[in-house]
């Protein structure tokens, strides 16, 4: 298949969905180009094809002649992107409504990676993580987390990194972002109220953090889930 792809005429447009990016990369068609694939396989993909500029955070990438998407659902977004580019937003929206899917999710929007709730064990930092998740609308400092776990700040940070793979502060911010995204998707709360509920305090702070995470504003994010 890789040999057949390599013989495709130069002006042809090629699209991969999910792990089909491996086929394009094996044929040398992604060398030096930005590309994406399913986030679970992004590290392996980068190791296998170091000349490819892998971005595991986005839904899809339009590199001109070659377009790649993340998971299967992101492939639908990429197809709608192609329809919109070739036939206009009106036709793309009609297709989206017929398929009962959101009419627009920008390619630069982050992949919707579900983060598991920590197991309720009696050891380590899991109980403290559960405690924090129940009060995201309150200010929570490293000192609070360490005190709840009965550890020093240094010990708690070391244990937390070993169990979770990131710092307590980064994890806490991500949980606030995840809660805000859930409320934007499933509630009619105002942006100000969602900012309060998720612990960001102000709409401006929520806007800044959400843009950093998924590259869209709260209003644009909410709009993408409503036809």
UniProtKB/TrEMBL annotation:
PROSITE patterns recorded: HTH_ARAC_FAMILY_2
Span of domain HTH araC/xylS-type: 126-224
GO MF terms, alphabetically ordered: DNA-binding transcription factor activity; sequence-specific DNA binding
Keywords assigned: Transcription, Transcription regulation
InterPro entries (alphabetical): Class_I_gatase-like, DJ-1/PfpI, Homeodomain-like_sf, HTH_AraC, INH-QAR
Designated name of the protein: Helix-turn-helix domain-containing protein
Species: Candidatus Frankia alpina
């Amino acid at each position: 298949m890789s040999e057949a792809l390599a013989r495709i005429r130069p002006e042809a447009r090629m699209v991969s969905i999910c792990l089909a990016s491996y086929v394009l990369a094996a044929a040398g068609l992604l060398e030096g180009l930005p590309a994406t694939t399913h986030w679970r396989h992004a590290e392996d993909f980068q190791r296998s094809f170091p000349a490819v500029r892998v971005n595991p955070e986005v839904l899809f990438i339009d590199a001109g002649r070659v377009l790649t998407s993340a998971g299967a659902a992101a492939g639908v977004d990429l197809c709608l992107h192609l329809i919109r580019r070739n036939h206009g937003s009106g036709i793309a929206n009609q297709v989206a409504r017929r398929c009962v899917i959101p009419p627009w999710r920008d390619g630069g929007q982050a992949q919707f990676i579900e983060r598991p709730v920590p197991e309720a064990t009696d050891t380590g930092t899991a109980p403290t993580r559960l405690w924090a998740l129940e009060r995201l609308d309150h200010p929570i400092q490293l000192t609070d987390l360490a005190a709840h776990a009965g550890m020093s700040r240094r010990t708690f940070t070391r244990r937390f990194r070993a169990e979770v793979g990131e710092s307590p502060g980064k994890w806490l911010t991500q949980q606030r972002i995840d809660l805000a995204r859930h409320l934007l998707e499933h509630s009619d709360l105002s942006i100000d109220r969602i900012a309060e509920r998720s612990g960001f305090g102000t709409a401006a702070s929520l806007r800044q953090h959400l843009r950093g995470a998924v590259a869209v504003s709260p209003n644009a994010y909410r709009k993408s889930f409503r036809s």
